[in-house]
Design goal:
The protein is α/β, with parallel strands linked by helices. It has two domains: 115 residues, FAD/NAD(P)-binding domain (3-Layer(bba) Sandwich); 95 residues, Orthogonal Bundle (Guanine Nucleotide Dissociation Inhibitor, domain 1). 34% of the residues lie in helices and 23% in strands. The strands form four sheets. Strands 10-2-1-13-12-11 form a six-stranded mixed sheet, with helices on one face. The longest helix is centred in the middle third of the chain and has 18 residues. The radius of gyration is 21 Å and the shape is globular.
């Protein structure tokens, strides 16, 4: 089993891991940095593929695809890399499909799907309830917030089951949990959900296309190119694909990182992959 020595090993070649590697190199060009990625590509939750389009073939985002003017770090990175953004198009008919492959597909033209009066009332009351709670949360120190331990002891699913009346709204929020966090509602701490919403300025801000909201802009050419351009700056030789990390062991002298493609040693490790993977 091969074993190389580095100053820092970064686990995960998504935007977080590659940005961390680039920042380390900028601060100290003498540091030896290695990025390990289990997949055969960089980009993590962002992946862009060429698919048929109206004028031939175009790049389509199959994973994370939106950025916002309120997300200052990624917008700064986009400017640095010389990439363009464009506003999310919202005019016309929208398609809503929820509840599995055999569920009914509906269309609507307003900002939210067409609900019955009862479902709309349920939607309004749960948004009001959640947004009222987010105003009590400290984004800088969530555990100092009122009832923090109580909220952290329950999941988003627990809260939904207690306070949502209709099946449709439960399904909608469960779907939003998968989209925003990549986790089931039963896997998300309710305190974390409140902190995340508070940091965004409200729950709807995570999902709307209005200025400063989470789905304000798309990236011209796809979001995966941000990671690909970061690799160009870091150096492709410093990124190892197909090297899924299985164990990280630390002793008094160094850290041993074992992967599916061999083992490396280093002085520090940055784990930059989603919580459901790093666990």
């Amino acid at each position: 089993m091969s074993e190389d020595q580095f100053d820092v090993v970064v686990v995960g070649a998504g935007l977080s891991g590659l940005s961390a590697a680039r920042r380390l190199q900028k601060r100290n060009s003498q540091l030896s940095v290695l990025v390990l990625e289990a997949r055969d590509r960089v980009g993590g939750r962002t992946v862009s593929e060429k698919l048929p389009a109206a004028n031939g073939v175009d790049q389509w985002d199959m994973g994370g695809q939106w950025v916002s003017s309120s997300q200052t770090h990624v917008m700064e990175l986009i400017r640095e890399l010389g990439v363009e953004v464009f506003p999310q198009y919202t005019e016309g008919k929208k398609v809503h499909h929820m509840g599995g492959p055999h569920a009914k597909i509906s269309t609507y033209s307003s900002s939210i799907p067409s609900y019955s009066p009862l479902v709309l009332l349920d939607f309004s009351q749960i948004l009001w309830r959640i947004d009222s709670l987010t105003k009590t949360i400290s984004v800088e120190d969530p555990m100092s917030s009122p009832n923090a331990e109580l909220y952290d002891s329950m999941t988003l699913y627990t809260f939904m089951e207690k306070h949502i009346w209709t099946t449709q709204i439960k399904e909608e929020i469960a779907l939003c949990s998968r989209i925003v966090f990549g986790l089931e509602a039963s896997q998300v701490s309710f305190l974390y959900f409140l902190m995340y919403s508070a940091a965004a300025g409200g729950t709807l801000r995570l999902l709307e296309t209005t200025p400063g909201s989470g789905q304000e802009f798309r990236v011209k050419g796809g979001t995966q190119q941000l990671s690909e351009k970061l690799v160009e700056q870091i150096g492709a030789e410093r990124v190892r694909l197909g090297a899924g990390v299985t164990t990280i062991c630390q002793d008094s002298e160094n850290i041993k990182v074992t992967t599916s493609a061999g083992r490396v040693t280093c002085k520090a490790v940055i784990v930059a992959c989603p919580s459901n993977l790093s666990g």
